[in-house]
Amino acid sequence: MAESGGWSTIESDEGVFTSLIENLGVQGVQFEELISLDPDTIRSLSPVYGVIFLFKWLSGRSRDATSPEDGTYDQTATENGLFFAAQTIQNACGTQAILSVILNHDESSGSSTLAPINIGPELSAFKEFTAGFPPDLRGEALSNSEVIRTAHNAFARASPFVDETQRPAPADEDADLYHFIAYTPVNGTLYELDGLQPHPISHGPCDAENFPEKVIEVLQRRIARYPAGEIRFNLMAVVRDLRIRAQEFGDMELLERENQKRRAWAWENSLRRSNFVGFIGEVLKGVVRQKVKDGKYEEWVETAKKETQRRAEMRRGNI
């Protein structure tokens, strides 16, 4: 059984999320970051299977088992084929939100007017295995999936000092905590899928065509509940691989841009998995040896001390 410490924190990044699902065997899907709450931007990426929303968790709000702050609980949605899993583990909410979209638009769902997603053998087996489970057991099954956990943890930042899979509860009650949830149209309804809620949340009738307008309305209402000036949100669309569109329309310029983007993602992800502390330490040792050899070590240290002091005084407003 996987323990809560077995899942690391990963970044909200389109390259990370795309590579993560590809490592799980999903084909023909990618993530695109949305920089504005604009329905036309979402529509320009069609087909869009859903969006992943990252937001700052507001403490002090109790969860109401009978009514959410917006929308209504749909207690029969899972019985009608919706994939929804309760979140039973820390740090897994990003991957859980991703799967909340992906697993509701595969071939077995039969609930979407969009082209079905090829989720691959591993996720197909997972979905089939958990088909009759209630949300809490689905959450446990997800938490204990070695395949999903390994794909998730592949994007943890390397560190020689701490085990980033260990995440103790913050001592500061005011510490910033962030959470991922998913919005997706399934069975003609816009659903908010949040593993910390007791049930899927329905936001009314919705299909793939009017999803951009509907989801933006919901997101705007949610953001309006935050203090004015709060900007710490992130929104990503789950879309069909844009290289497929480029090939279908013979758009070689778009195809090249997307291929360049994939190369950049691969490079950035390799850096995320790399630990440069040892390299930096060796460089610093080499610099020190050279300063000692040149007889300038003491001068170098004193110069650094003066510069540090100058910057500290500038921060205090003394200069």
What descriptive keywords fit this protein?
Ubiquitin C-terminal Hydrolase UCH-l3, 7-stranded antiparallel sheet, 11 helices, single chain, 2 domains, disordered N terminus, 319 residues, alpha+beta
The chain-level mean pLDDT equals 85
Q: Into which percent range does the helicity of residues fall? A: 40-55%
**Which structural category fits the helices and strands?**
alpha+beta
Pattern of helices and strands:
HEHEEHHHHEEEHEHHHH
Radius of gyration: 23 Å
Shape: globular
CATH class of the largest domain, anyone? Alpha Beta
Give the spatial strand order of the biggest sheet.
Answer: 1-7-2-4-5-6-3
Number of strands: 7
The CATH architecture of the largest domain would be 3-Layer(aba) Sandwich
The DSSP helix count reads: 11
Number of domains: 2
| Cα separation of the termini | 58 Å
| CATH fold node name of the largest domain | Ubiquitin C-terminal Hydrolase UCH-l3
Q: Which segments are poorly predicted (pLDDT under 50) over 5 or more consecutive residues?
A: 1-5, 159-172
CATH superfamily of the largest domain: Peptidase C12, ubiquitin carboxyl-terminal hydrolase
Largest sheet report? 7 strands, antiparallel
Strand content: 5-15%
